[in-house]
Here is the input.
Amino acid sequence: MKSVGPIHTDIVLVGGGHAHVHVLKKFGMQPEPGVRLTLISPDSRTPYSGMLPGYLADHYSLDEAYIDLRPLCRFADARFIRAAATGFDLPENLVRCAGRPPVPFDYLSLDIGSTPRRDSIDGAEHAISIKPVDRFLDRWQDVESRIRDSNGRFHLAVIGAGAGGTEACLALAHRTRRMLASRNISHDSFTVSLLSDTADPLPTHNAGTRSRMRRALIRLGIDFRGGNAVTTGAEDHLIFADGARLDVDATILITPGAPAAWLTETGVDLDDRGFMRVRPTLQSVTDDRVFAAGDIAAFDARALPKSGVYAVRQGPALAENLRRAGTGRPLRPYKPQKNTMALISMGGKRAVLSWGPFAAEGDRLWRFKDWIDRRWMLKYQELPEMAAEESVHPDIDPMRCGGCGAKVPADVLHDVLDQLPAARPDPAILVGLDAPDDAAVLQVPAGKLLVQTVDQFRAFIDDPWLFGRIAANHCLGDIYAMGAAPHSALAAVTLPLATDPKMADDLNQIMRGTRETLDAAGVTLIGGHTAEGQELTLGLTINGFAEADQMLRKGGLNPGDAIILTKPLGAGVILAADMRQQAPGGLVDQAIDVMLQSNGAAADILRSHSATAATDVTGFGLLGHLGEMADAGKVAVDLDCGAVPVLAGVDSLFAEGIASSLQPGNSRSAQKLLAESADRPVLAPLIDPQTAGGLLAGVPAEKAEACVDALRAAGCADAAVIGSVVARSAGSPAIILGKGKAPAA
Here is the structure.
């Protein structure tokens, strides 16, 4: 049930922790008119702590143990910003992020977890930290490879014997021994040590739980060394407090959690360990606008263990209080339970139950834990379709004007433009934004031709800064394809209905993203137009200059030319799936990386290898644009379907019946181009509409291999020769689907 009312309040969630995924789900089920959510997270998926040991032990797949944040944000109508937060500014109401402009907020919530504490170990950088989990998994693959290459003669040390450390140690030992056995490698020489400054594993649990875990460690041959803290670490050894030395091949660090270091610079009150002090309402004791949940929150009334159980239980309270804060209602206190039931994995499919003084273990308890964990995950993995609901904020006139009455207010526009970096001086720009007038004025250099193109988009991604970067990159594609040098641009922006400050925030974000791409391409923004409407849109008119004898046209293909494509296909179906909440976050990240890649360097390389014709692959898909080139040159193209680069993973989306809304039209057009139109269906990736797609060019066959090598060296990793130009007789088709295994239909 999506709210389409004017935006008046921004709630920014930093971190994809357990409490925040519940906030997103609740707001998706019951939107709050005029309240906009934004999630900032460095990763598009987040692990569920309850299933992480099972994933490490190889009981669960990645998809089973992770929550995909992008579909969840789509469901909540929340903006997703993939970035690492580096701090926040309370006086300015801004969250600072690495590599992008700060994000404004009215209310801010932190659910960023913690990382293993390192300050007690000199040389802790030599150990592999269990958090962040994705980075740990990348490094663990290297450790597993080393274990295989060593034929099992390997010593793994795990520092930290709390619940997380003990579970992870048992899981990794179980996983590794099974891996060695599957390869017929003896694991007698594979040793694991669990190291702790406490006398027992799980020191906060009852004696029965501790003794059961001791026996579990013995069963897996894990050497527990307690009561002697590790003080020094190196790549191949550890030193203990009593001076003893332990030779190791790799060390995993799972010590008690430490907070993000940047919290000390935010001005909020922290406890003696650096965690944010909060009231029972989950608000900072310093500022009512700032909330915290999970590991990062420290309660004055009662210190809670850093456990995912509490983060899960805080989710409903946080969602309710953020909703109440955003609508001006009194908040309610969160009341933590006195005792929590812990189900702790024991490596294999066996678990120990710890509840107050009571302890038990068994295979049935693992199945019970598995049932609980899977049921919780399904709430955030299986999302219902929701209808839209209209609403209007009382502070904003619902009878919005059209025509020039729909323009963004002048003071909002001027304030944003004043914040943008100054444009570079250019003698060809006689009138631009440095001295605005009714129109921009350009002086075309002597002997040059003016090349112009225009494109306009509805927002296809919910981060306005990122949308501006990609849209500008797309708009530059036509200029590069023509063999011109981009020079200047005019922007047309439509902003969703909101209060003036919110409009200013959105305009600032989209223009900063647009400017980042334009500035990198040496393009000056010289003017534009702003208006308000139902949704965010951006259009750009790009001006370029070209030498008459160096321009590339679609119609220059010659028989014998090789056809080169510089980027893979698949962005269209990924964006379509993302809109339907059906695209895995990793696929969307992959598409974004491709869409952000500039075609500038590729255009230079194609020209230097004597390209005869070029265009960019955009809305009409590969076949549509290739057909335009063939028709313009009165030639045919023999397309090697198996050579066409396609983004990994899109075949499953096509198999599910997902396609862009432009796909049917592209299919009808493509049928007219093909030799086998009557007998063979059009292959889905070949007609998938692309945003900021690659360049498609003809290059003399003798230069094609060198051209592809140069493209790949310049960052176009998927560049490939995908076909050849052949002569075309009257009445024959423009495209022949030639040899090679075709991409997924």
Remarks:
- The radius of gyration is 29 Å.
- Residues 386-408, 677-681, 740-745 have pLDDT under 50 and may be disordered.
- The longest strand covers residues 485-496.
